Amino acid sequence: MAIHFEWTKSMSVGENHIDEQHKKLLSQLNKIIDAITIGVKSKETSEAIGFFDEYIKEHFSYEEYYMHEYSYPHVEEHIKKHDEFIKSYVAFLGKLNSGENANDLIMEVETYLGEWWINHIGKEDQKYHYFIDSISKK
To answer: What's the CA gap between 104 and 59, in Å, rounded?
Structure first.
C-alpha cells in the first residue's frame, strides 16, 4: 500500500502563492505514487511527470525570487538544495524511462519525496519563512 502525504498548517511559509504551489506539489506526489502503481507507462504517470517538469521550473524560480526580494541571507544555500533536487529528479526520470521495477520506483519516490517534504519544506522553507516574518514585524 502506498503512502500518501497530507498538508498541515504548520507547513505554511506565510506566502499564499508558495503555499498553494506546495499544496499542488503534495497532491501530485500522491498522484504520481498512485500512477506508478497503475503502471510506469500509464497516461497518469506521464501527466504527473509533466506536472513535475513545469512545477520545478515555476516553483523554484518563484521561491528563489521571493527569497531574493527579502534579502534572505541563506538564499544561495537554498538554491543549492533546489539544484540537488533537480539532479535527483533527472536520475529518477532515467530509471522510470529505462523500465525499472515499479515497486522499486514507488519506494524511491515515497522515501525521497517524503524526506524532501519533511526536511526541505518542513525545515528549510520554514527558515526563510521565520526570517521574512521577523523582518516584516519590525
So the answer is: 27
